[in-house]
Amino acid sequence: FLRKEGLSKCGRCKQAFYCNVECQKEDWPMHKLECSAMCAFGQNWNPSETVRLTARILAKQKTHPERTQSEKLLAVREFESHLDKLDNEKRELIQNDIAALHHFYSKHLEYPDNAALVVLFAQVNCNGFTIEDEELSHLGSAIFPDVALMNHSCCPNVIVTYKGTLAEVRAVKEIEPGEEVFTSYIDLLYPTEDRNDRLRDSYFFNCDCRECITKEKDKEKLEIRKLNDPPSAETVRDMIKYARNVIEEFRRAKHYKYILCLTLTPLACELLEICELSLDKMSAVFEDSNVYMLHMMYQAMGVCLYVQDWEGALRYGQKIIRPYSKHYPSYSLNVASMWLKLGRLYVALENRTAGVKALKRAIAIMEVAHGKDHPYISEIKKELEDH
């Protein structure tokens, strides 16, 4: 899903892409760890992002035993690992990653012992960042030690965005002197119970922010369809349980976008059918603005985009955008990315007026979250000029 047109490619392995030649040269000290292995393994080169990131950390620690520029306040070695809270399943996953690290990098790295590797993988899992583009499509993973110092809140007052290899932190609310800076570790669309389930599973804590204490948005996020014969409390509970199970199935599978990259259209059609069947079942109880409905609509929209069904993607996006704007915090990147998708879809379908309006809404949010000088904004403004 990377836009590879115009990118610089490694001439040896043919698998590493860069934004330009300068970027490629700068990364060579790290890429040389992988280049030979990529050539040797060919199509069988498939370490996870976590394994690749951890290999680079080990290499960096070997060549730079002192603190790096990104460790002015906190060193990677000082990361919290929550080792004592790992269950057997998480420990097994870490051992699988360690095995993959040895398998793919055995000729290129010096390893600490197994116990130290368990700690390091646990630290990376708790402190890593997901890098996404302007439409929130996944690009990769990274660590930014000093940025990792920030605590979580479901009412964040800053947003972390990325410019090349830099993480940038911008305020999206007024922050008084002495007030703590909070970011969000998770997707904030979901109700309080779901958010805290995710926080406990990935970061081992419960959130006690104002949003989690008051639960004031939960009723709207879980809106029930208005019927002459309202569903019983038990029916609602069962449907919420069903929706959570469906969402978990999507999460447990490797993200379907990556699966689709390697498969044919029939699987995409099958995934779309699963989304539509789930939506049909949930719509007997939930309003379209219910977050579980929105989740499945978003998945369906993603499949439509993959198979280039622009009209289908637009229909889902039009249903999503208003509830998104209500459920997410102000200046949410999720809302900006949806306006951006809609704008590009409108333009592709020759509805320039609606496209320009949607793109301008995306820019208004992104200028706060990314900064007015971010390349993404320049790119979108050029799209407006071109159309």
From TrEMBL:
Of the GO CC terms on this record, one is: cytosol
Q: Which GO terms describe its molecular function?
A: histone H3K4 trimethyltransferase activity; zinc ion binding
Pfam annotation, one family: SET
Q: Which residues form a coiled coil?
A: none
- For this UniProt entry, what is the primary localization, expressed as one broad class? cytoplasm
Ranges where the MYND-type domain occurs: 1-35
Give the protein name, as stated in the record: N-lysine methyltransferase SMYD2
The opening ranks of the lineage are:
Eukaryota, Metazoa, Chordata, Craniata, Vertebrata
